[in-house]
Write a structure and sequence with these properties.
Layout (H helix, E strand, L loop, with lengths): L25 E14 L5 E6 L16 E6 L5 E5 L1 E2 L4 E2 L3 E12 L4 E11 L5 E12 L4 E14 L4 E2 L10 E2 L10 E8 L9 E12 L8 H18 L4
Antiparallel strand pairs: 1-2, 1-3, 1-14, 2-7, 3-4, 5-6, 7-8, 8-9, 9-10, 10-13, 11-12
Length: 243
């Protein structure tokens, strides 16, 4: 992915700055996703961010491939990593599909509504699925910012283990979250646009995502959590760019 830079954050809670009482149960962070946008009408369009397995031609030196970590923070804790695996001289690319359908695009005020679906898969194709909805706006420096929520999380199958690379000390974790009532989180996106506010189509932009989720009883904390998280993501965006 060599055209443009897009740093996308899907997020709920930065656990290091979450208010007391926010019972974080799940987090994930992915980078080097491939993003695209397709205008459908003057006021609608579709944004997608998906995994990629692009290499530079050397089996030992992957350049552009999706990597990430999904962490269960509720007992029993565990995590799944997706990255280059020197023990196997191979990599297990993270599998991510995010689709956001944009409506009511207002280029006078640089806003748009959006909703869609997020799908995360492990090495065995077990899945974590959630719906996303919210609002795009234009932030400082030409960045498009999406504020919204992720909800309706489904773990398929709940009896499975979400597994990452076998050689990266990646123990995986139980996908049984049935004791948590409707886990949800805030959803924040920070995106570098290539000029204009979703005016033209683009493809193969480098993207990254991070998220953390709490049970529904903590939903009242989401506003404060989202503000703290937004500041952390802005600092990270300013100091780091994916390839």
């Amino acid at each position: 992915m060599k055209t443009g830079v897009l740093w996308l954050f899907i997020a709920a809670v930065a656990w290091t700055s979450a208010p007391a009482g926010a019972d974080i149960v799940l987090s994930f962070a992915y980078e080097t996703l491939s993003s695209s946008y397709t205008p459908l009408t003057a006021t609608t369009g579709q944004f997608r961010a998906t995994h990629t397995t692009d290499l530079d031609g050397s089996a030992a030196t992957p350049v552009d491939y999706s990597k990430g970590t999904v962490t269960r923070l509720a007992d029993p804790t565990g995590y799944a990593r997706f990255d280059w695996d020197p023990a196997y001289n191979d990599f297990y690319a993270a599998k991510v599909q995010l689709t956001l359908n944009l409506t009511n695009i207002d280029r006078l005020h640089n806003t748009a509504s959006a909703s869609g679906l997020l799908e995360l898969s492990d090495v065995d194709d077990d899945m974590i699925i959630g719906t996303v909805s919210g609002r795009w706006s234009l932030g400082a420096g030409g960045q498009a910012v999406f504020n919204g929520a992720i909800s309706g999380l489904v773990f398929q199958p709940p009896t499975a283990t979400f597994d990452g690379n076998p050689g990266l000390r990646s123990p995986g974790f139980s996908m049984d979250f049935t004791r948590f009532d409707q886990p949800l989180g805030t959803f924040l996106d920070v995106t570098d646009l290539a000029g204009g506010f979703f005016e033209n189509s683009f493809t193969r932009r480098s993207s990254g995502v991070v998220s953390q989720v709490i049970p529904a009883p903590g939903a009242a904390l989401l506003g404060a959590i989202g503000l703290a998280l937004a500041e952390g993501l802005r600092r990270r965006l300013a100091g780091s760019r994916p390839r």
